[in-house]
Amino acid sequence: MSTHEKLLPWPFCGGEARMHPNNWLSCTLCNIFTDIHDTQSEALAHWNRRATPPAAVPDGWVLVPKEPTQEMTDCVAGYFDFQTNSAANAYRAMISAAPAAPTEASDE
């Protein structure tokens, strides 16, 4: 392995990586390990691969759930008299009642 290549800590426990003969790596804390690779460079790339972060939300846009929550539908309930309230106002009310986007992966 060249000096400019750096092994990242394992993202789940923060443990350091250890390169083994036959080009496989393991975590010094939780003992997770990779498959055997043809080269040290391939093993390093496999270990250091991380999920792509989500795209940034453009200014003026927000992330909302695919289906409205109960709070969102309750919020818009008062806007069904469209003689005095516009659909745009109803939409803004639902957006303001939407929960924040999750910050961590969940099983839901």
Describe the structure.
The protein has 108 residues and is an alpha+beta fold. It folds into two domains: 52 residues, no CATH class; 45 residues, no CATH class. It contains three helices and two strands, in the order ββααα. It has a two-stranded antiparallel ribbon with strand order 1-2. β1 and β2 form a beta hairpin. The protein is rod-shaped and about 70 Å long. The two termini are 40 Å apart.
Quick take:
With 108 residues, the chain is α+β, with helices and mostly antiparallel strands. Helices cover 25% and strands 7% of the residues.
Strand percentage:
5-15%
Radius of gyration of CA atoms, rounded to a whole number? 24 Å
Main sheet strand line-up: 1-2
Task: Return the structural class.
Answer: alpha+beta
Characterize the main sheet: 2 strands, antiparallel
What gross morphology would you assign? rod-shaped
Instruction: Write down how many β-strands occur, each being a DSSP E stretch of 2 or more residues.
Output: 2
Number of domains as seen in the coordinates: 2
The overall pLDDT, averaged over residues, is: 77
Q: Distance between termini?
A: 40 Å
Helicity, in percent? Answer: 25-40%
Strand/helix succession: EEHHH
Low-confidence stretches: none
What is the count of helical runs?
3
